[in-house]
Amino acid sequence: MMTIENAALARNHYPAGYHRRAAPRWRVRRDVLAKLVLTIAFYASLWRATGMWYGLPANFDDGAAVDPLPMKLLLYGLIPLSGLYFLLEQRQFLRVFSRISPFIVVVGISCLTSIAFSIDRGASLKGLAAVIVLAVPPLLYRARYGNVEAFKVLGRFAIAAAFINVVYTAAFPQFAIMRGSYAGMVKGAFYHKNTLGQFCSVSFVCLLSTEKLGRLRYSTLIRWAAMLCLLVLIVATKSSTAVVLTMFGSMMLYGVRVIHIYPNRLFRSFVVFLLFLIVGFGASFVYLGVASAVAEAFGKDITFSGRTNIWEQLLPLIWDRPLTGYGFAMFRQPEVMEEYVKVTFDARSTHNTYLELALNIGIPGITAWTLFLLTRLFRKMTIVDPDPAESGARRKEIVIIILIMLGAMTEAGMMLAPFILWPHMVIALSELRPRLRTNRNLRQT
């Protein structure tokens, strides 16, 4: 313990006129404020992506707007929040956007080119702006605090959404249960039962844990209850895609864990390469076969409720504009679908994200995007992570990427679209390390 004499000597040690710098209290407050702003923006982007709101029509044929006014305000509110975070942590903001994959550069050029040749430049520009605005908060949060913290936020939001949709369905069945051609299928507070199914399937994987069960806590019981609610909602939607994604996701999460047991990166690369060759070609056929079987169990036809009729009419259109496409987000517009697709039912989407992107941004854009997904997926599967928590989060990132790529075969708007799983996709594809940990490692070396 320092005596009074020693303290006096310590003060006299400094030269005359020297003033010790005050503790950087502003820096602490700024970090706390930055995290608060970024967390609010992250939750807001998740909410806006789901589109959950009270009173959305139960009849899909009513033609109500997908984005009610509160959802538009929520989207616009992300712009000042992202701007405020830029003012608080400019270096971190610029660091995130200074490391962009060449494939993403090609995708960006394809998107801008498609807007220049779009059949409706205004709608294409708004669509691209919405995708960017919705992607910024999750990307910044993942880069600033890491994948473990990002998945904690995804888990909390999934738990809240599961309970909210169950309560909403019980309290307001006139809005939560669909009518018309989808009579009896539950959509909850979402706009459509398929979007609820997609969200629940990926959220179930986010909450699923492959680690050994430790001490039983209240948080674990709440998580289990939320997972049960998600399963109930998946079945209630009668969405064959959601059921298959949940089954595949659960099995893949444990399968990837087996691969990550081996610490040797070269061995992992060899195993992953074999999986890409063996499973990659067969997974699509197995997925479609299982999905058709589940569809039959729900009383649907084996052609995925008329999807093949839509695809047959849209595929030739790709070659009319193979380089530029028809414009970003064009084939997400119902009026465009009505113009180019003639079927006996109301076809409002392509029901295939790859086909949609090929029509919207052209063949170079969809090719670059697919290559980016595959290379990023291969890299994540071969990375050796010593931290068990980060390794578990990385496994979930891998499964989410695979699930979205599989689900995109039978559903539209699952990639490069401001809907449902876009924030999840952004987090899963990111590779940036959290800044705090990087600085700490540098000091230790």
TrEMBL record:
Q: Name one Pfam family in it.
A: Wzy_C
Give the Gene Ontology MF terms in alphabetical order. Answer: ligase activity
Superkingdom of origin: Bacteria
**Subcellular location, in the record's words?**
Membrane
Q: Which GO terms describe its cellular component?
A: membrane
Q: What UniProt keywords apply to this chain's record, in alphabetical order?
A: Ligase, Membrane, Transmembrane, Transmembrane helix
Instruction: List the InterPro entries hit by this protein, alphabetically.
Output: O-antigen_ligase-rel_domated, WaaL-like
Membrane topology classification: Multi-pass membrane protein
Which segments cross the bilayer? Answer: 32-49, 69-88, 100-119, 125-141, 153-177, 220-236, 271-295, 357-378, 398-422
O-antigen ligase-related domain location is 225-369
Q: Does the record's keyword annotation contain Ligase?
A: yes
Identify this protein by name.
O-antigen ligase
The organism named in the record is Rhizobium esperanzae
